[in-house]
Amino acid sequence: MSKKRILSCMQPTNQLHLGNYLGALKNWVKLQEEQCEFNLYGIVDLHAITQPYDAAGLKAATQEIAAAYIAGGIDVSKSILFVQSAVPEHSQLNWLLTTMTQVGKLDRMTQFKDKAGKNKEKAGLGLYAYPVLMAADILVYKATHVPVGDDQKQHLELARDIAATFNHRYGQEYFPMPETIAVGAGTRVMSLRDGAQKMSKSAESDMSRINLTDDAETISKKIKKAKTDPDALPSDIKGLDNRPEAANLVNIYAGLNDISAEAVLKEFGGAEFSKFKPALADLAVAKLSPISTEMTRLLNDRAEIDAILRKGSEKARALATPIYKEIFDIMGFWS
Ligand code: TRP
């Protein structure tokens, strides 16, 4: 079997938080150790402009995601870190792929429905076409494996659909079908204020999330103030049913320590939160504060980040260009 070609991306919107770290970045760091043809990690700024955004802050937001990638463990000697808009083949392929995408399929995308809300008529074409650009991100490298969370699985399926349409229409098995690498169920991090809501960068209370830029004191305070229930921790995983806040803190402990929730309960079953929370706070500080320290250091030298992004984007472009050329030829264009 040929080696994996791994790609994933994040949007440069607001700051990254613990959910992005445990749900995505930490897995990417592990994937770097596999025998792959390449690991590509992108910052998808063209996606970030599909909703109202701050033009004056876009560049800084791009640098901040890059800093989070690096501080979180993406090693630029093993992975390629690039900016989507710096590789114009993404947008060029996007256009070609629109001609292979049925609007009926885009109509079914739940993320569009969520983001457009009731006012679908006024939603931008970019927001609607967002999954086609995402397919281009993947196919322009003929990526074979894409680590994404549950919320992106439908988009991945569309990317496979588009790839299959191309292969069928042009009569050759050109694109491999990109597979989802599912990130584990335990990595879904919920709000510290409400165990039924995902931890989110847009939630109004900063106490609901741990940002990757939070310092040790802030991390510790947020964990200690996290919402819980009055009971002690159960010894059995079933005992977490209907206890979303308790389950979330156990999952966070498990994720940070790379162990199962069962193993956490083996250690802490029967313990009160007055004992578990300080242990979780210490663990979170130990694992996360080096990341925030490194991010702060990197963000004080944005020229260094720019140099890394420039080099990575050049490498990404070198991979994309020949593939784009082949697609162009297969589609019959004059050149
Ligand atoms: N839509 C993804 C998200 O919001 C980001 C993304 C864009 C992506 N292009 C991609 C993820 C390609 C994986 C592969 O999380």
Verbal overview:
With 335 residues, this protein is mainly α. The protein folds into two domains: 4-186 and 302-330, Rossmann fold; 206-298, Orthogonal Bundle (Tyrosyl-Transfer RNA Synthetase), CATH 1.10.240. Helix content is 53%, strand content 8%. The protein has 13 helices and five strands. It has helices spanning 18-31, 45-48, 55-71, 89-98, 103-107, 110-116, 125-139, 153-169, 216-224, 244-257, 261-268, 273-299, 302-330, and strands at 4-10, 36-43, 80-83, 145-148, 179-182. Strands 1-2-3 form a three-stranded parallel beta sheet. A two-stranded parallel sheet has the order 4-5. Helix 10 packs across helix 11 (261-268) and helix 10 packs across helix 12 (273-299). The chain is globular. The mean pLDDT is 95. It binds tryptophan. Tryptophan is lined by residues 7-11, 44, 47, 134, 137-138, 146, 148, 152. The site of tryptophan (TRP) has 13 residues, from strand 1, helix 7 and strand 4.
Task: Assign a percent range to the helix content.
Answer: 40-55%
Ligands (ions, cofactors included) = tryptophan
What is the element string, with H for helices and E for strands? EHEHHEHHHHEHEHHHHH
CATH topology of the largest domain, anyone?
Answer: Rossmann fold
Detail the poorly predicted runs. none
Q: What's the overall geometry?
A: globular
CATH superfamily of the largest domain: HUPs
Decide which structural class fits the backbone. mainly alpha
| Sheet with most strands | 3 strands, parallel
Named CATH architecture of the largest domain:
3-Layer(aba) Sandwich
For the record, the count of structural domains works out to 2
In percent, how much strand structure appears in the residues?
5-15%
Name of the CATH class of the largest domain: Alpha Beta
Overall number of strands: 5
| N- to C-terminal distance | 34 Å
Please state the average pLDDT score.
95
Count of individual helical segments: 13
Strand numbers in spatial order across the main sheet: 1-2-3
Radius of gyration: 21 Å
